[in-house]
Amino acid sequence: MADEELPVPRVPPLPEDRWDDVLKAVVASTGPLNVFTTLARHPDLFASWIGLGSRLLMRGTLDARVREIAILRTAHHRSCEYEWLHHRRLGLEAGLAEAEIGALRLDAAAHGWAPADRAVVDAADELHATGTLSDGAWRALAGRFDERGLIELVMLVGHYHMVAFALNALRVQPEEEE
């Protein structure tokens, strides 16, 4: 959306004078991101959701590189520019190269992924396309992850699909670049 005008948010971010303690704590850690200040308009749902999101993003068992490959591939599949922009930065911080991040917008075969990373890309693709994993995809992942990691990866992809649905449908806007 480089030169295009962004659509108007369907639900605007919550003004700071209406932030509750949960949102204030989140913002103290992350800054006033529109994803949080928008979803916080439903305080009970936000308080429950932020726990799962924080667990997956900051206290999960998957290493940051794997997590960001899965999230960025999901953001690509869901055409979620907000999610993509935020996780592009996190992907770089996790050690992904620019070429790898760019390749997450391409056919999986267009990049020379290491087999372990390719299994994550393929899993995100299969989950997006079919809502499940084939036995072959499961075996490829099971060679890399323990039981907890397998559960977490599937939950992570599903979670970021849900977040992308919300961000896209609510038309949450990226923050202004400073």
TrEMBL record:
Residue ranges of domain Carboxymuconolactone decarboxylase-like in the record: 43-126
Entry superkingdom: Bacteria
A Pfam family of this chain: CMD
InterPro entries attached to this UniProt entry: AhpD-like, CMD-like
Protein name: Carboxymuconolactone decarboxylase family protein
